Amino acid sequence: MLRLFKDAKYDFIGVRRWAYGFSALLIVPGLLWLLFTGLNYSIEFTGGTFVQVRTTEPVGTGPIRTALATAGITGAEVKEFGSDREYSIKARVTREEGEEILGPQETAAAVQRALDAGLGTGISSVVRREAVGPKVGRELQEKAIIAILFSFVVTLIYLAFRFEWRFGLAAICATAHDILATIAFIRYLNLEVSLVVVAAVLTIVGYSLNDTIVIFDRVRENLRKYRRQNLYEILNLSINETLPRTVLTGGTTILTALTLAFIAGEVIRPFSLVLTFGIIVGTFSSIFVAAPVLLWIEKRWPGEDARGARTFGTRTPTSQFTPATPTSSPSPRAPQHAR
Amino acid sequence: MGKIRQRLIVIGLLVGGCIVALLPRDTRQRVPDSVTGRMKDTTVRRVPIQLGLDLQGGIHLALEVDESKGPVPDCADAIQRAERVVRTRIDEFGTTEPVVQIEGRCRLIVELAGEKDPARAKAVVQRTAFLEFRITDMKNTFKDALPAIDAALRRAGIRSRTTAPSAVSQLFGGDTTKAEREDTAADANAPGVLSSLLFQGQLPGEFLVPEEQWPLVDSLVQRPDVRATIPRGIELRWGAASESRGARAYRALYAVESRPIITGEELVGAAARRDQVTNQSIVTFQLSRRGGTKFAQETARHIQDYMAIILDGRVQGQPPVIRGQIGRNGQIELGTKPLQEASDLALVLRAGALPAPLTIVEERTVSASMGEDSINAGVLAGVIAVGLTLVIMLAYYRLSGALAVAALALYVVFSLGGLALFGFTLTLPGLAGFALSIGMAVDANVLIFERIREELALGKSVRLAVDEGFKHAMSAIVDSNITTALTAFILYLVGTGPVQGFAITLMIGIAASMLSAVFVTRTFFLIWLQRRPDMTTVSI
Predict the structure, then answer these.
(1) Where is pLDDT greater, at B211 or A30?
(2) Does pLDDT of B35 surpass 80?
(3) How many Cα atoms are found within 13 Å in the side-chain-facing hemisphere of A127?
(4) A182–chain B nearest CA distance, Å
(5) For the purposes of burial, counting CB atoms within 10 Å of the CB of A112, is it exposed (0-12), middle (13-18) or buried (19 or more)?
(6) Virtual CA dihedral for B76, B77, B80, B85, nearest 10 degrees?
(7) Is B443 close to A127, i.e. CB distance below 8 A?
(8) Exposed end of chain B (fewer CB within 10 Å): N or C?
């Protein structure tokens, strides 16, 4: 039978500092860049007008800009949208809280007129248009942040109940890492943040937690099974044992997301790209962030016998899981991995 | 043996339930009538999963109360009034299934699938509501003119093409309106084109038209020659909604005086309540000083007459009778009808009294061709993604992988059934989410199979390894999925519109994946092991 990573014995925890460095390298420049330039928000957030035009021949962005300028429409962003026969024209609302968004709507009609005049009638047709007031977007943003924070709290409570609070905290650290990394990724590729991209980020929250918990479940089990080993060894063992699953599930999901990114069309490409990256980073963080952070938390706030999960999250008496060998008090950490 | 049978029965029931939920069924749908060009209701058979606007093309509008010309004290009430008004205009949209709903507290969402002209749609939505009270045709002048109208139609060469009199009596035999119909028939000595379609209602000036004949009758009364024959001072107005009498749906047509006795401008307020003494549902309303004087004069002249309440040209509810002179304060008694109906009427009155100017805060238009492209690309991507997943599962787990693939097929049935059950609208992100959920759905199977392999590697027998594999994988499956489901649930609580739809897809996907991976795959394994009890190796 085909078995990938059978009996793998990689020292994942040992390279945690490399992993931290890698994460920092990924996240910090992106967030700094973000601080100075902000994100490329869609008009759902900023308010404004978006017009997607389909043309019968590849006209190029130049003539479109000229046509718009001749008609007196300035400050619009013209881009190719997926092919050389589709273009997006985007204009943001500049005035603050301009309750009337009639401006943008008129713009949409004016764009069609301008293109008919500049390119010739019948060359271009508007296939999608959106006009949004600035107030709507601000609400969306707040709601997304509330949703993420709220999901953290609920996850923490659930994991505290099923595992132990330390596990919950570690899982949330890994998930927060994934969100930050994804935001940095969005910044690097200058992807447009729309409502569906926010939905993609929230999906990543779910996926990342899911992936982390599968490993933590094994940690919980191994803590009961091998009471003489220290957490460092148990974390490594658990990650290696679940490695085939991580690779297989991660692989199929990433393949799906990639397929969506390349085939499902330009409209949801930002969504698919964000998902693809999020799944990769979510898988990475379960191994290289969640587990090491658990170890770190455990050192900071040791449990009653340095094994929190044994006292929580199980309804069966622990003795049932105790191996024949008598249990000793917590063993000293293996010297080579001391700290 | 019994255990397996029970499991198979449960699976059969679930699959059956999902298939029933997915069967095309009769739904009322509005389509343009070929005769008149107006919208009418028909029944069509459709799969109960709707396509979102981004997939079928159309217009999405979000509206709020316009506060640029002064603050509006209660925006929730204003939006409710606006919703009521937009609903009465629903026939004016050239679209099959308009969605009119309130989002949050103070925002109105109007979705018009297939609508092509945004300017027209916006004009319909934003037009100020117009409310008027008119006395119905008490002297039956319209009814008396029916023979003349029929004659005019006959001259124009129009015959009663859809209903022969015999068919009518067959259809309406035993109906409560029979007596009234007979006297309509007696008035018109020959089966007239129009009079054969109208049935006298319960009060003077009220006529009932079978719902399916409504567009035809409307096209008849709109004809110039018919309008010329309608007596002076009388106009025709349709009822706002169809009502069922017996087993059939009717639309009311009212002959009303062309002069309104009062309009919404004079109305100050209206509220619904239940009378403590008589336990009736009543609507109280107040008029302005000027309106009160005018109303007192008019009502004094029209005691015992019926007064139609007309919003945007549509008669709302059955016209109440005027009992006596009414001044600035009046009340409409609805008898034993539910308070809900009274609240609705009060809302209609307030809608006419306090027009709520709406401003468009969001507008999206997707052309139908664009929607089609999106569907094609989305479905293609989904099929390829699922195909890749299946190939990997089969290659890696062989026969067990085939079981997982079979379970995955049931997963698709379960989740589609769930989506249909929730009346879910499929959008492009939803389609992507669904494809992704299939990629994730194999996770539970992978967890179980890897665990079985581990148990086999420990030297356990096949049967024991399978049992242990399922047992030990369970905690990981349950905990990881519950956490994801909790996240999805919060998304549903906090999110709006598309995000909520996405959250529902996610939750249904999780439930279906746990069901198919844990329960269905386990059943398959049980059957497999039972057929080959002496199995020493397993294809996994």
Answers:
(1) A30
(2) no
(3) 23
(4) 18
(5) middle
(6) -140
(7) no
(8) N
Tokens linked to B355? 């027009």
Within a domain: B333 = no
- Say yes or no: B537 contacts chain A, CB-CB below 8 A: no
Q: Structurally, how many domains does chain B consist of?
A: 3
pLDDT-based confidence at B178, cuts 50/70/90?
A: very low
Task: Quote the CA–CA distance of B97 and A160 in Å, as a whole number.
Answer: 47
Chain B residues inside the 8 Å CB shell of A206: 483-484, 487-488, 506
pLDDT on residue A288: 95
Query: Nearest-CA distance from A191 to chain B in Å?
Result: 16
Alpha-carbon gap: B44 to the closest alpha carbon of chain A (Å) = 29
- Quick one: which of A205, A201, A277, A252 has its CA closest to B435? A252
pLDDT band at A58; cut points 50, 70, 90: confident
Pair of tokens at residue B418: 């769930």
Contact A256 B483 (CB under 8 A): no
Whether B10 and B79 share a structural domain = no
Helices and strands in chain A: count of H runs, count of E runs: 12, 6
Q: In the predicted model, what is the mean pLDDT of residues B72-95?
A: 79
| B216 CB-side CA count, 13 A | 17
Q: Are residues B511 and B387 in the same domain?
A: yes
Asked whether residue B191 falls in the same domain as residue B92, the answer is: no
Residue B364 CA to residue A48 CA, distance in Å, equals: 11
Domain co-membership, B76 together with B103: yes
Do B465 and B371 lie in one domain? The reply is: yes
Q: Are residues B177 and B68 in the same domain?
A: no
**How many other β-carbons are positioned within 10 Å of the β-carbon of residue A95?**
10
- Regarding whether B183 and B86 lie in a shared domain, the answer is no
Closest CA to A267 of A189, A197, A339: A197
Average pLDDT over residues B257-284: 87
Closest CA to A214 of A179, A249, A181, A169: A249
Asked whether residue B321 is assigned to any structural domain, the reply reads no
> Any idea what the CATH number is for the domain that residue B462 is in?
1.20.1640.10
Q: What are the pLDDT digits (tens) for A134-159?
A: 666 677 777 777 878 888 898 889 98
Domains and CATH numbers, chain A: 13-38+137-337 (1.20.1640.10), 48-132 (3.30.70.1130)
B288 close to A (CB below 8 A): no
Question: In angstroms, rounded to a whole number, what is the distance separating the alpha carbons of residues B456 and B537?
Answer: 9
The 8-class DSSP code of residue B320 comes to P
pLDDT digits (tens, 9 = 90+) for A290-319: 999 999 998 888 875 445 444 443 343 333
B53 within a domain of the structure (yes/no): no
**B518 lies in some domain:** yes
- Tell me, yes or no, whether B382 and B243 share the same domain: no
CATH number at residue B86: 3.30.70.3400
Structure tokens at B477: 């499956």
Residue B111 domain boundaries? 58-128+358-365
- The whole-number pLDDT of residue A105 equals 60
Global pTM value? 0.74
Q: What's residue B446's pLDDT?
A: 92
Q: What is the mean pLDDT of residues B167-189?
A: 43
Q: How many residues does chain B have?
A: 540
